[in-house]
Amino acid sequence: MNADSKQQKLLERITLKPGLMGGRPTIRGLRFTVGDILELLASGMNELEILEQHPMLEKDDVAAALLYASLKMKNTVVIHAA
C-alpha cells in the first residue's frame, strides 16, 4: 500500500454528519471528535493512554485525527490581529 492510499484509508475514518456533534469532524461516526483527540494529545497523553481510557477508539483513529488536522492546517490562513 503506497503512502497516498494509506492516507486515504485513514481519512475514511473521519466522518462529517450535520446532526452529529454540531457537524464537527468525528471518528467513524462516533461521538468523539478529531478535536477531542487533539486536546488529549495536547494535554500530554500519549496514544496508548488515549486508547486505554477510550476503548472505542483504535490506533488508526489517532493517526487519522492527526492527518486530518495536518491537512486542514495546510489549507488554513492564519490572520494575526493587531
Key terms:
Arc Repressor Mutant, subunit A, 82 residues, globular, mainly alpha, two-stranded antiparallel ribbon, 4 helices
Structural notes for this entry:
This protein is mostly helical and 82 residues long. It has a single domain, classed as Arc Repressor Mutant, subunit A. The protein contains four helices and two strands. A two-stranded antiparallel ribbon has the order 1-2. Helix 2 crosses helix 4. The longest helix is centred in the C-terminal third of the chain and has 16 residues. The chain is globular, with a radius of gyration of 14 Å. The model has no long low-confidence stretch (mean pLDDT 91).
Q: What is the approximate shape?
A: globular
Order of helices and strands: HEEHHH
For the largest beta-sheet, the strand count, sense and barrel status come to: 2 strands, antiparallel
Question: Which regions contain 5 or more consecutive residues with pLDDT less than 50?
Answer: none
How many beta-strand segments?
2
Q: What's the alpha carbon Rg, rounded to whole Å?
A: 14 Å
So, the CATH homologous superfamily? Winged helix-like DNA-binding domain superfamily/Winged helix DNA-binding domain
